[in-house]
Amino acid sequence: MRQWGVAGVSALVIALVMGVATAIIDNPFFVRMIPTPWWAYPIWITTSVLLGLLLATYVRPRGPWLESSSSRQRRGLGAAVLAWFAIGCPTCNMLVVLAVGTSGAVTWFQPLQPVLGVLSVLLLGAALRGRLRNASACPVAIPAAAERD
Description:
Layout: H1 2-21, H2 40-56, H3 71-87, H4 94-137, H5 144-148
């Protein structure tokens, strides 16, 4: 139950933060210069759900809350960054504009954004699959003191 709660709350918080910061959710803080494409919404929601589920795999069902990190955690973080670039406005992203300029952001980067989004979802899916596979194959021992809590 603890893991499902973390998954749900994490997914909502991630969706809210990514939605506001990329201006998929209308807000007074950020404005998109280019309208949000249709494919950004499924990438945004799928990424939020997968990240929430992935974060929940780091929470123990009982005992101490968190377990140690792994390479899959770094893969999940990389996938989250890819999703951020995928759903963000290409001309609003200063890193992209500095690297290729405004016209390059629209000409070169914008067509790559759906590919980044799909790659992000695939990496998150692989990271989650690996975490779940290892969780069932090698359950974490819970110390006797933690079982009494």
